[in-house]
Specification:
Radius of gyration: 19 Å
Number of strands: 8
Low-confidence stretches: 18-23
Mean pLDDT: 90
Order of helices and strands: HEEHEEHEEEHHHE
Shape: globular
Helix content: 25-40%
Largest sheet: 8 strands, antiparallel
Strand order of the largest sheet: 3-4-6-5-7-2-1-8
Length: about 210
């Protein structure tokens, strides 16, 4: 009995020390992820359809390149779904599958970058909800969407291999609700992957995203 009590007491002490560590996870504190990205870097995405690689050029959009670097390096995009795939237009991702983590990123906005590149096929760009509202959602252009340039969408990188994988991502759900039959972003942010697994089970996803060395 004494040994059992000692073990339980030790477990309680260890739990007290572990709790703050979990609470201070980098993904729970966007402000802690501010490392400056290299001048150029590659991000590898292992997905349910295969692998594609994005090459980022920091000079194109420095603030966006830095944010994307920190998101990939921290594991933010692991197990994240391609929740908006519109054939002939673009594929969008970046809403985290854990609502508790997503809650911290909804308001983790970064200032805009000037648009120095065009939204042509294969270019990757942060999604926005207006000026200075970029957080974690990005999209890859399926086609020449240069019309987006004048709206402030600043590409920061390009898919340099595996664009055929990007093209093959499941587009059956299309545009999101309420305009389309795809997921409602509000519900996705509040319910996470559980919502997508239940109602959009064939949606493709990122298994793991890493910075290539």
């Amino acid at each position: 009995m004494t040994n059992c009590r000692s073990i339980l007491a030790l477990a309680a002490i260890l739990a007290l020390f572990a709790a703050p560590a979990l609470a201070q996870s980098p993904l729970s504190n966007p402000a802690s992820l501010r490392e400056q990205a290299p001048a150029t870097y590659k991000a590898r995405f292992d997905t349910s359809k295969g692998v594609f690689v994005v090459e980022v050029t920091r000079a194109w959009a420095p603030k966006g390149a830095d944010r994307f670097y920190n998101l990939v390096k921290s594991g933010y995009y692991d197990n994240v779904r391609f929740f908006r795939v519109i054939s002939g237009f673009m594929v969008q991702f970046g809403i985290h599958g854990d609502p508790a983590i997503m809650a911290n990123w909804r308001t983790a906005q970064i200032p805009d970058d000037p648009v120095t590149q065009s939204n042509t096929r294969g270019m990757i760009t942060f999604a926005t909800a207006g000026p200075n509202t970029r957080t974690s959602q990005v999209f890859i252009n399926f086609a020449d969407n240069a019309r987006l340039d004048q709206s402030g969408f600043a590409p920061f990188g390009k898919v340099v291999s595996g664009m055929n994988v990007v093209d093959s991502l499941n587009a059956e759900y299309g545009e999101g609700a309420p305009r389309g039959r795809g997921p409602d972003q509000g519900r996705l942010q509040s319910e996470g992957n559980a919502y997508l697994t239940k109602e959009f089970s064939r949606m493709d996803y990122i298994k793991k995203a890493t910075i290539e060395r």
